[in-house]
Design goal:
This protein is an alpha/beta fold. The chain has helices at 4-15, 63-77, and strands at 32-33, 89-98, 105-111, 129-137, 145-159, 162-175. 34% of the residues are buried.
Length: 178
């Protein structure tokens, strides 16, 4: 039986960075609508080290599979940020993963696809954004699809769910509507 997480990895590599719904060039209030692919430097290829590998030959418990997963986690935790994002006013769609445990939400991770960070492996660090709101909001739950507006900065941090590559100083969170 092929190693189960490898199938997940292949699926993630195939769909990482895909935008959530249609995203235009400019949004309201002077914030640029961006897609997740804009957060990735053009010359970074997260699948480069896996090209030509036949994952179907790996079995559960295979030391090579364990080694590959550790290599993937290390590479994705160190995923480079896109320098042009520093200081940019943006609006980004994604899925919300609260870091607060209260009813009011002030800090959360924004991730590109449903279930990211909850399942393993997490997305690359350049696909995880820590959002810190200037004012707490209510009414949002884990994995709610949202739009977030704010000023982006390159920011390296670890979270319980994976490496973080950006922080967004959020000014507005709203339910995602394409």
């Amino acid at each position: 039986m092929a190693y189960r997480w490898m199938r997940t990895l292949v699926a993630l590599l195939a769909c990482w960075g895909l935008p959530l719904g249609h995203v235009g060039a400019t949004s309201n209030a002077g914030y640029d609508d961006i897609r997740w692919e804009h957060l990735v430097p053009k010359d970074w290829d997260p699948s480069a080290q896996f090209k030509g590998m036949d994952f179907s030959k790996l079995q559960d418990g295979d030391p090579k599979a364990t080694e590959l997963l550790a290599s993937l986690k290390s590479a994705w935790d160190a995923a480079p940020a896109e320098p042009s994002m520093q200081g940019r006013k943006i609006r980004l769609p994604g899925f919300l993963l609260p870091l607060d445990s209260s009813e009011s939400l002030k800090t959360f991770l924004l991730v590109p696809y449903f279930g990211a960070c909850i399942h393993s492996p997490p997305p690359p660090a350049n696909q995880i954004v820590q959002v810190v709101l200037d004012k707490p909001v209510k009414g949002f739950r884990t994995m709610d699809p949202v739009w977030v507006m704010g000023t982006m900065e390159i920011f390296r941090s670890d979270s319980p769910w994976g490496g973080v590559g950006y922080r967004l100083k959020g000014v507005k969170v709203e339910t995602f509507k394409p």
